[in-house]
């Protein structure tokens, strides 16, 4: 495994700080769904059906808000958007524990709509600050940090509500999101490099959406849907398989090992001399997921069977973001990253009812098969559109990190 690409990446001014702030900002963001679910289901005693309504409302809000916030970042800069979304989260989490259920549903949807774009903004700023030839390494490292955030956030939410109660936990989540927002406001990383700003000025305006939101871009979003569909359905199938086998005490360990596979895969992929197409990686992940159910007898064999597909999780996610950054012009990168975030949410949301129906019907072993084959099918649907890449992008060579504008001298896009 090549370590040097990561060393070179972390030598770029501002990158270590951006990655650290981005990871810490994502931890409270990943805790929100679990905290709301447990608050409604157990603390309010309303059951998991109504808890699911809260999750659905929040997810719909985030799916709509993600590209909108990205578009506003492109137009007005990072700070105004982070200020508004941070204040919105501070208000919501300060009073969420006091709200009756009907009001909480609407408030959760609004909070999702005004969610801080910490996932897409970190990737957008990475694309601006990192030279194109190093972006694959940067996005691979970012995907690994996202994995760590998802390992910590929900677990901390469960521990917090169990030990401290939902009121304190919600206030802590709000405080965490406020601190994260303040960190991004102070850091104010650039969303476009100096070279990209120069190109934007030469074009004298924003690239029309029709020039980059092409069938190829839609196919790219489809691969993002496929990725999270496979991952979410696999997780449900894993939990159901182990529950049916009476091995629930090992579920946490099994999921943790699966996450480690992804971390290792992301690390190796980021150090390779060249990358692979998202279509290749996602199709391979689907094909390797399909037969996992054959090892459902013992949880140790099941976890081992997840190794080949698990290795491809982080590379599949990072390769799609890398391709997006090269296809979409810098002036629309925030909106494009927002659409990518929405696609990830759609895949995750669609997996639950599909995998659940298979688990309740033929059984959890078949859910692995369905998860993998659906992922492969979505890649095949995307394939005919793939080579019709967007024409709106004009790759700008970023020759040196020094070309990146720092927060102390904000680009025009950052000051409106």
Which keywords apply here?
single chain, 416 residues, mainly alpha, Growth Hormone, Chain: A, disordered C terminus
Measured by DSSP, the beta-strand proportion falls in under 5%
CATH class of the largest domain: Mainly Alpha
Major sheet, described briefly? none
Using the alpha-carbon principal axes, give the shape: globular
- How far do the termini sit from each other? 43 Å
- Number of structural units classed as domains: 2
- Give the uncertain stretches in residue-range form: 392-416
Task: Name the helix and strand elements from N-terminus to C-terminus, one letter apiece.
Answer: HHHHHHHHHHHHHHHHHH
> Percent of residues in helical segments?
over 70%
Query: What is the CA-atom radius of gyration, in angstroms?
Result: 21 Å
CATH homology superfamily of the largest domain = MFS general substrate transporter like domains
